């Protein structure tokens, strides 16, 4: 039985795009802060007179040539007079006459003023873009200028433009967690979910490196995106990060269901994953209990079939009269007395056998009856005799020891599982044990 789609619904509900747009007032205020009146006046006077300008990024003194001053002066006069039609008409000549990076930067400032004076977002953005592209913007102005490129692109719902600007911003300030999260949201809009998951993961890692964890929603969104992208390695890593930071039952359930969904074809692994879910109290739906009990019934684990159905009834997830539950419970009850009676002799034979399989099989039976110490002894015998998948036996040994209250010994067994998907399940067991109160 596959993991139910209903059970995974909450996992896959990544949710709508977080609020990333900004208001007109916010964008304009930010630009005004960056382009102070004093700087504009100084630049404009230089445009008029061709005199020494500000210090550029290279440390040399920037200045306009006489030809650049002559080309830019009409634009400056029109902007100073707030004559926007005249300024618009003078802009192309000023742009054509601006040859040096600093001159292009000055024209970009005046271009922006036209947009502000006419309350035009597109023209303001053109001016900002020109300042950024000029190569003449002072180093301390580049970051806020790019920030405003982001703001205007988001206000215009131009996600491709926002993506470009955010990438540019992160070149300047690569560890800005807020901008990483913002870019991740933009990537979701652009249907680049795998890239979004990687960005969320990077934001989480940066926060953890600084001793702070991100908001729970960031972990959950990153995990769900990785799962949707079918990136098994990233899903596992983000799932572990999620339950380490926020070990809630809902998060544990989402992570374990995703693990099961990724390994549906491995029936023994599914059985062990369901055992983990039961131990952690993560089974919720009637179908989950019935599917679990049915799988156990097919492998002859009648004691565990009864335990699972009895638990579902006690939790009122199932009714004793339900058809599937009644059938499975009746079949188990019909075989339990004989099965239990055979265990001592089977145990003796298994411990005398040369191979480990009989010991592992009888260990499974003892596990199903909740006799975890006996199960652990048989699993250890199976490991000593050999011939069995050591990862499978160690998972079951660890589970037996954990449920028997032997946490340290259980952790040792789980750490012995080092390869394949069972190593992933062992990591979940270890994280869950670490989240439990000390005995």
Structure, briefly:
By secondary structure, this protein is an all-alpha fold. The protein contains 23 helices and 2 strands.
CATH topology of the domain at 263-435: Serine Threonine Protein Phosphatase 5, Tetratricopeptide repeat
Please work out how many helical segments DSSP would assign. 23
CATH architecture classification of the domain at 263-435: Alpha Horseshoe
Q: Strand portion, in percent? A: under 5%
Going by helix content, strand content and strand pairing, the class is: mainly alpha
For the biggest sheet, the summary is:
2 strands, antiparallel
The pLDDT mean sits at 86
Structural Rg: 33 Å
Cross-sheet strand order for the largest sheet = 1-2
Distance between the termini: 36 Å
Order of helices and strands: HHHEEHHHHHHHHHHHHHHHHHHHH
The oligomeric state of the chains shown is single chain
Reading off the top of the CATH hierarchy, the class of the domain at 263-435 is best stated as: Mainly Alpha
* Helical coverage, percent range: over 70%
Overall body shape:
elongated
Low-confidence stretches: 3-38, 49-61
């Amino acid at each position: 039985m596959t993991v139910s789609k209903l059970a995974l619904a909450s996992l896959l509900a990544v949710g709508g795009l977080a609020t990333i747009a900004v208001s007109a007032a916010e964008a304009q205020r930010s630009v005004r802060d960056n382009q102070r009146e004093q700087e504009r006046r100084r630049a404009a006077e230089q445009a008029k007179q061709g005199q020494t300008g500000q210090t550029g990024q290279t440390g040399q003194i920037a200045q306009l040539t006489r030809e650049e001053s002559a080309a830019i002066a009409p634009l400056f006069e029109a902007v100073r007079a707030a004559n926007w039609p005249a300024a618009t008409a003078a802009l192309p000549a000023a742009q054509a006459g601006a040859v040096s990076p600093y001159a292009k930067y000055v024209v970009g400032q005046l271009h922006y003023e036209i947009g502000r004076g006419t309350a035009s977002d597109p023209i303001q953005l053109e001016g900002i873009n020109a300042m950024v592209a000029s190569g003449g913007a002072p180093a301390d102005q580049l970051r806020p200028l790019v920030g405003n490129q982001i703001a205007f692109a988001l206000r215009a719902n131009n996600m491709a433009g926002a993506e470009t600007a955010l990438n540019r911003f992160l070149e300047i300030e690569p560890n800005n967690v807020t901008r990483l999260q913002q870019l991740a949201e933009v990537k979701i809009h652009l249907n680049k979910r795998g890239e979004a998951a990687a960005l969320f993961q990077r934001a989480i890692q940066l926060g953890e490196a600084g001793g702070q964890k991100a908001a729970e929603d960031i972990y959950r969104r990153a995990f769900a995106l990785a799962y949707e992208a079918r990136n098994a390695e990233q899903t596992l890593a983000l799932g572990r990060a999620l339950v380490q930071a926020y070990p809630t039952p809902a998060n544990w359930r989402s992570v374990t269901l995703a693990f099961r969904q990724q390994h549906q074809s491995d029936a023994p692994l599914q059985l062990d994953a369901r055992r983990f879910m039961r131990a952690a109290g993560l089974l919720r739906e009637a179908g989950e209990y019935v599917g679990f009990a049915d799988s156990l019934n097919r492998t002859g684990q009648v004691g565990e079939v009864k335990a699972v159905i009895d638990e579902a009834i006690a939790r009122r997830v199932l009714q004793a009269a339900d058809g599937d539950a009644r059938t499975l419970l009746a079949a188990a009850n019909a075989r339990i007395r004989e099965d239990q009676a055979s265990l001592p002799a089977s145990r003796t034979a298994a411990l005398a056998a040369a191979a480990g399989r009989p010991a592992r099989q009888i260990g499974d039976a003892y596990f199903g009856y909740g006799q975890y110490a006996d199960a652990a002894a048989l699993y250890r015998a199976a490991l000593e005799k050999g011939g069995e998948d050591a990862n499978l036996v160690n998972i079951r040994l660890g589970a037996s020891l954990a449920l028997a209250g032997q946490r340290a010994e259980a952790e040792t067994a789980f750490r012995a599982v080092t390869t394949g998907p069972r190593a992933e399940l062992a990591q979940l067991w270890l994280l869950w044990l670490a989240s439990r109160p000390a005995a």
